[in-house]
Amino acid sequence: MDNVTSIGQGGFIGCDSLKEIVFPPKLKEIGSDILWNLPSLEKVTVTGAETVFDGGMADDCKNLKTVEIQAGKVKGWFDNLDTLKVGPGVCEVDNLNGSIKHVVVEGDSQLKLLSNAFSGIEDLESAKISGKIAIPQYCFSNCSNLSSVILSDGITSVGTGAFKETPALKELVIPDSVKTLSSLFIDDS
Questions:
Q1: Count of CB atoms within 10 A of residue 182's CB?
Q2: Which among 49, 103, 122, 180 is most buried, taking Cβ atoms within 10 Å?
Q3: Which pTM value belongs to this model?
Q4: 160, 183 in Cβ contact below 8 A?
Q5: Quick check: 33 pLDDT over 90?
Q6: Separation CA 103–CA 85 (nearest Å)
Q7: Among positive and negative, which fits the CA dihedral 150, 156, 157, 162?
């Protein structure tokens, strides 16, 4: 699919044996419900810089374990996802919802985590964040099962309420590279 720039609504519906899909670098448009109800799908990889991947596109994929976003933007609802990997080519993570257990972010200075990026994801258990990025306000707030957060060297700041109301939090590693640690970053936790 190297030269594909657009895939229409429901593009892979009925492909019940499909286990993995890699969206190509030139892909710009993805129709809604493109991966809806694919019982064998285990992994999705997005490589296009102009691709916006909405978790709802893979709704009702019971065996989907890993979504790896290498470029573009990611947003929306994810259903029973084990691991979301965000690579250094990603430019934006916007208000994710649903059920995600583990988040791994390897960002660079281009990546923007928006306020509330992972806020309210009750099933979230761990997060590993690396790269020269900022953790914005309320980024992980209200993640009731979040127990481990490791921020690697390169993280520049942690915003207000970034870990607000995370009662299960047992481990939070903040590197020396953090120059701004906002007040109340871990309020009510």
A1: 15
A2: 103
A3: 0.94
A4: yes
A5: no
A6: 6
A7: negative
Closest CA to 93 of 117, 115, 71: 117
Exposed (0-12), middle (13-18) or buried (19+): which is 183, by Cβ within 10 Å? exposed
Phi, psi of 55, deg, nearest 5 = -55, -30
pLDDT in tens, 142-154: 999 999 999 999 9
Count of Cβ atoms closer than 10 Å to residue 96 Cβ: 25
Question: 158 in the Ramachandran plot: left (φ > 0), alpha (ψ -120 to 50) or beta?
Answer: beta
Question: Which tokens sit at 85?
Answer: 């990997």
In whole angstroms, give the CA distance from residue 161 to residue 65: 29
Tell me the torsion sign for CA atoms 107, 73, 116, 165. Answer: negative
68 strand-pairing partners: 45, 85
Evaluate if residue 31 carries a pLDDT over 90: no
Q: Kindly report, residue by residue over 86-139, the tens digit of the pLDDT.
A: 999 999 999 999 999 999 999 888 899 999 999 999 999 999 999 999 999 999
Task: Please name the residue that has the structure tokens 């590279």.
Answer: 177
